[in-house]
Amino acid sequence: MSPHGGEAQVDPPMALAAERTLLAWIRTGITLMGFGFLVARFELYLKDFDASKIGTGIAAAGILVSLWASVHFHRRIRRMKQGEPFETSSFAPVAIGVAIAVGGATLVFVLLGAVFSGERRTPPAGASPHGGSPHSGSPQSDSP
């Protein structure tokens, strides 16, 4: 509390540092969501690999990272405004980093196994392996 009975003033450099940290974690979450989408798209090309579930899990991890960062930022700013000291813990960032490293290594091994085995999943009927619709290109008539 401030000497005037209100909330303590937040030190601007500390608040800006907390905001930069929040934005870095949000960027990490967005990257995980994009990577999850990319992994899910690999299902078209890999046999015996449920990429859609793994990709969805990675995207969900991105959402959780973003939520965690927002809650952490809110708590830190609240403690700054109340004039309370705050603890710094490296557990969550280290745990997230280790999870990303383990997940990335797993994906590399799965993809390398698929590449060296030479097995490819054929795209479903009507799906184009290059993205886009199977009817893209010049229009065709139904008459012979």
Could you characterize the architecture of this molecule?
The chain is 61% helix and 0% strand. The protein has helices spanning 12-41, 51-81, 91-117. Helix 1 runs antiparallel to helix 2 (51-81). The radius of gyration is 24 Å and the shape is elongated.
Summarize the structure.
The chain has 144 residues and is mostly helical. The protein contains 3 helices and no strands.
Please work out how many helical segments DSSP would assign: 3
The quaternary organization reads as: single chain
Query: Which consecutive residue ranges, at least 5 long each, have pLDDT under 50?
Result: none
Instruction: Give the C-alpha Rg.
Output: 24 Å
Q: What's the β-strand tally?
A: 0
Class of secondary structure makeup = mainly alpha
SSE topology string = HHH
Major sheet description:
none
Beta-strand percent range: under 5%
- From the spread of the alpha carbons, the general shape counts as elongated
Cα separation of the termini: 84 Å
The figure for the number of domains is 1
- Helical coverage, percent range: 55-70%
Mean pLDDT: 78
What's the helix and strand layout?
Blueprint: H1 12-41, H2 51-81, H3 91-117
Helix pairs in contact: 1-2
What attributes does this structure have?
144 residues; mainly alpha; 61% helix
